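#data-curation
PF: Archiving a pair of folding outputs for the training set. Convention for this channel: one message per protein, sequence first, structure tokens after, nothing in between. First:
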Amino acid sequence: MSTVSQAGSSPDSQNFVDLCTQGSEILRTIAVSKGASGDLVGALSCALGSDLMRIQGALWEALIVSAGTSYRKYFQLGEEIARACSEPTAEPNLSIAQALLAVRSQVEPILSNVGIQGFQALMLDVEPFDNIAFPSSDAIAAHAAQRLEGMTPQSYARKQMQAASTLSVQAFTAHSSGNIEQAINLMFASDFTALDAYLVESAHAAGDRNLFTVQIRWELATHCASLIDELPQDFAAAAHLVRAAITQFMGDADAVRLRAVLPAV
């Protein structure tokens, strides 16, 4: 259940660690909010995403920033950790807090084996999740099915990409007619529809049947977009600003792949 990756960054790069810490805190806040509203699956996925981003940051800092270890070793360990985080097992009446602690105990020996000690002290307190129940496997499956509108991941992604293409054509038509505000709004909708398709397709390729990564990455993208106070009244500038926001927590390779399916503006 990888949330962000950092291919091609310099070994002394500290910004990725800071990005992981920031993303972890954003997802934790969202997870608490979803738990309070009764969205147990959303709370679980975002809480796990928060933990995973913080662990990714710790791993990057220890292996890449401090030790100069190869990227290959980092990604190998990252995948091992992601598997440990992807499908936590739940006993009856288990809370999300207990599930997080169980996942952390699985991750700890992986990190200890590469010399990372005391990582538990870096993790956020699970207390806000003490009274939030772990969702049943049926609830998790139903949540994923609802997210896909009952379709297969491939069919849903195709549908959304077709919808995104239609919206982008409408955006360019509005721009050609001089209706800049409408063009910007349509391109905004097109980009987010394409993002939705891309995230589902990526999750399917990675074997994420529960679509936890879709929720995690969607929440981060929409959060960043929500921080834009006002879009510039220039079609290209507005599109570039939105795209920078929705790819803020993506690794370089991911951002390139997403932009490749978005229309040039």
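PF: Second:
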Amino acid sequence: MRYIIQIILYTFLIFTISLNMNAQTKKLSAEDQILQDSLYQSNRKKVLNFSMKEFDTLFFEFFTKKNNPDILLTKTEYYNYTVQIAAFSDRLARLYPDQKEVASQNKEQWLSESYEDYLEYKASQKK
């Protein structure tokens, strides 16, 4: 029971953060889309087998690095994190079919994350 509540709480947390980060879904450049697709295909099976502990580690590692002004992720590193977080939504949709729409929206939000927006965010941190 505790595990189910924890998953629902994390789904809500991820969805809320995702909505705050991008009010509208943006189109990525063709180059970024190709990179994302490649990373998604190579990470999907691994992420679908993540435990909540592994996902927590990934999620908090991403936000720690993203918010650290001394760390600048490469485009591949950035998209690797966002794609894995998005792919975890597929796992949640399978585990909780009644949350399928929320998981789908969450996945879409994470896949719409732009490296260029991240670079702008990092530039604003330096000021």
